[in-house]
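This week, study the protein below.
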Amino acid sequence: MRQPAVFFGHGSPMNALGGPYAAAWRDLGLSIGKPAGVVMVSAHWETDGPAVTAQENPETIHDFGGFPDALHAMQYPAPGSPALAARVADLTGAVPTEGWGLDHGTWSVLTHVWPAADVPVVQLSLDRALGARGHYDLARRLQPLRDEGIVIAGSGDFVHNLRTWKRDGGEPYDWAATFNDRVKAALRDGDHDALIDWTDLTPDARLSVPSDEHFLPLLYVAAQQTPGDAIRLFNDVIEGGSISMTGVRIG
């Protein structure tokens, strides 16, 4: 069965414990059902050369500090899949590794999408050597997996500026809302070149994307779009003025 591609605006690790975005993530999982597996690209795993997790039982990585004990104690014991990792390696040239697991960009959302932790998950890293076009081209090689029952997923944020984030909330900055809207429009139009050349989306795009690791996972999802694929948004909110929680389902 052909599976969708999904981008998650993951925001704070605290979202793993619940909150306003969990219901949409849970509903997404119910609508998809149980796929054969997930290939996740997270903002929180960058490597020199592409890598893919290949262990049977990946570790739940708590790659953060200063949060409550309940969050640090959380586990997401989803199985890995050496076979899926090998397939990803064949398609992309990524090197299988057991030196990483599931970081919070992955498990903080999947704990709501598939709370039984019974869907195999592998992570594909972000290769630091690639520019946006290189990431997109690599992502296109993953397209056959959708017809093999695999969900291609990315986890980051369209807009991710922690320096301007307002702890007490408040309305989005104009520049953040405009950039977020331009990204959504490009997705709806299938204008992948605009997403690849994201620095030209708005005059102050660098305010929305000071560094690109939270934006690049979106390219891995957009690259799966084929003619006729529906585009659905969820959790379309900008939190604290400058963190976009917007999620996208393609197909």
Summary: The longest strand covers residues 150-156. The chain has a mean pLDDT of 97.
